[in-house]
Every structure is written in C-alpha cells, then in structure tokens.
Design a protein that fits this description.
InterPro entries: DNA/RNA_pol_sf, Retrotrans_Pao
Strand content: 15-25%
Pfam families: Peptidase_A17
Radius of gyration: 24 Å
Shape: globular
Number of strands: 14
Oligomer: single chain
Length: 347
C-alpha cells in the first residue's frame, strides 16, 4: 500500500466532509498530512481549512489560503468548532460557550428547559454533573405532568432560574484535549468508576499512565450519566445500571483510543453488584439476569471494590468473591502499603 497512514486515517477519522485526527510526533503528523493531500487530490477532492495546535507545522506544508483563519493566534480568534466542540487551537484546550442567563420576569416552560439542556453540547460528558441537574428538574416536570408550553410551577421555576443564570460560568472552564502527557510511556491503565443515587446514576473513565519521572498521572477521558427511571428502583439495581453503562461506555471508547493499555479496572462501592457480576446470570431474577446477556457487563474486566481501613485503600477483586455462600463472602484483598508493595490478608 502506497499510503498506509492516510488509508487508515481516511477510514477511521472522516465524519462526512470533516477530518479529525492527529499523530504522536510532529514528523508523523507531517507525513500524515502529505499523504492525505496526495490521496485526496488524486480523487479530485482538495482539503482546505486546516487547523492544528502547531501553526508552524501547517505553515511548513500548506499554502496560506488552505489554513483556517482562526488558527492564526495573533488575531485573537483561535477558538473554533470541531464537530460541535469548541477547541482553542492556541492553548489546545476544549471550551464551552453558554448564552447569558434569563431574566426573572421571563416566562419559562418545559420546552424552554429542554431547549437550554440541548444547547449544552457535551458528547464526552465532561460537564455531566452540571447537565444532570437540569435533566433531574425536567424529569420532575414529567412527574407533575406539566404540558410543553405551560408555565412551570413556581418552586421549580425559582430553582431553574438560579441554575440557568449560573450556567455561563462554564465559559471560564477549559479542559486539556490531550489525555496523555507522553505517548511513549510503557504502562497505561484504564480505570472506570460508577455510582448511583435515588435520582441519577453515572460513570466515568480515567487513564492512568507512568510519567518520565517515574510517577503516575491521571486524566479524565469521558463520562456518562442518566436520570433514574420514573419507576422507583432500589439503589443496588441503580448501581447495576451504572455498571452496565460503564461497561458499554468502555467497550465503545477504549478501542478508539489506539493505546497500548496494560490493565483495565472498574470500581464500584457496591458488594451486591460485585456478587451479581461474578455469578451466572441464571442465578438471578429477570431484571438482573438481563443485564448480563452477551457478557455486556464486562466480565473480562477486573471489577474492584475500594474500601478504606486504617487509611489504606483495599482493592477487592470480584473474581475472588465467594458467591456460593450468601450469608458470608470470603474475599482475598490487597492493600497498598507506604512502600508501594502489596500485602495480602483475608477478611
């Protein structure tokens, strides 16, 4: 194949007529750009409006008319949209743009609230804890059977106005686009966390990697949250829903990272969920058993239970749970001591 890098990138990184990709080094990025230009030009499709966090790279390859104007930092307008996300090419950070709040005399309906929620485009769930509050309020209106254009109750209106007028504070938030500081590191782990409450449940994925100094660093990859169903569920069942949400999120996102991941850990504080996951689905009722169809709950992942005893974090591996004895579960746990070594004990 004459253009191997370009061929793989075209299949993987094109969305309609937009191309979004990258490389580990400047030389690899330059090679990819040149190959892309040659391949697309051979089909009569000229690529334009190039943007990069390294303007010198683009200037060394492309004519000025093919470079996106917002990529010139000296004009003070380096923030642009990439597939709906705001990206500041100068600082290489993701940002949000929220319109100003509404006045206290403005009429508010359920339709207006839904419109404001939809205006926060956050596919990675980076501000999920903020957005979920609005979704919880919207669900409360559904419970009250408020019509779309009917004025919302006074109590909910006051709560919404307070929330809506604080939303523009997200404009001051910037999140690094890069999740790894050095892509040449040899040890990379994925850690997933989940939790649930009576009103919502969610999960998030972190990458943990070794730095050049021998220490470890972490970065948030993405997150996802949902409001709890209107039909009341127990906390363990909501925790199970969060576990399923986490495993599906990981199955979708991790392959896209194209990283040499050594280990994957999912964390939950629910021993009941760990027991459900570690045993055959046929042992449980329909609601629980259906969550495991097709091994969709990530049985090939290390599911861990974090416990703090004496200031030490204990990791309980769900694969070592003894689910044959309902009254007492014997587990082998590991605790990290101050020297960084693991010691074993039973509980």
């Amino acid at each position: 194949m004459e253009y191997p890098k370009a061929a793989a990138a075209i299949i993987r990184d094109f969305y309609m007529d937009d191309f979004l990709s990258g490389a580990e080094t400047k030389d690899e990025a330059a090679t990819l750009i040149r190959q892309l230009i040659d391949v697309m030009n051979s089909a009569g499709m000229k690529l334009r409006k190039w943007s990069s966090n390294d303007i010198d790279l683009l200037k060394s390859i492309l004519p000025d008319e093919d470079i996106e104007l917002s990529n010139y930092y000296d004009i003070g307008g380096s923030t642009k949209k990439i597939l709906g996300l705001y990206w500041d090419a100068h600082t290489d950070k993701l940002r949000f743009k929220i319109s100003p709040g509404v006045g206290s005399t403005t009429a508010i309906s359920k339709r207006d609230i839904l419109s404001d929620i939809a205006s926060i485009f956050d596919p990675l769930g980076l501000v999920g804890p903020v957005v979920i509050r609005a979704k919880i309020m919207l669900q409360a209106l559904w419970r009250e059977k408020v019509n779309w254009d009917e004025p919302i109750p006074i109590g909910v209106r006051e709560e919404w106005l307070k929330y809506r007028n604080l939303l523009p504070a997200l404009n001051n938030l910037s999140i690094s686009r890069k999740i790894l500081g050095d892509l040449s590191v040899g040890h990379i782990e994925i850690h997933g966390f989940l939790d649930a409450s009576e009103v919502a449940y969610g999960c998030c994925l972190y990458v943990r990697y070794a730095t050049g100094t021998g220490s470890y660093s972490t970065s948030l990859i993405c997150a996802k949250s949902k409001v709890a169903p209107i039909k009341t569920l127990s906390i363990p069942r909501l925790e199970l829903c969060a576990a399923l949400l986490l495993s599906r999120l990981a199955a979708k996102i991790i392959p896209k990272l194209q990283l040499n991941i050594k280990r994957r850990y999912f964390w939950t504080d629910s021993t009941i969920v760990l027991a459900w996951i570690s045993s055959p689905a046929a042992n449980w009722k329909v609601f629980v058993g259906n969550k495991f169809k097709g091994k969709s709950c990530g049985r090939n992942i290390s599911w861990l239970l974090p416990i703090e005893i004496g200031g030490k974090c204990i990791m309980v591996d769900r694969s070592r749970l003894d689910t044959s004895r309902r009254t007492r579960m014997t587990t082998v746990t590991r605790t990290l001591d101050r020297k960084g070594t693991y010691s074993r004990f039973y509980c």
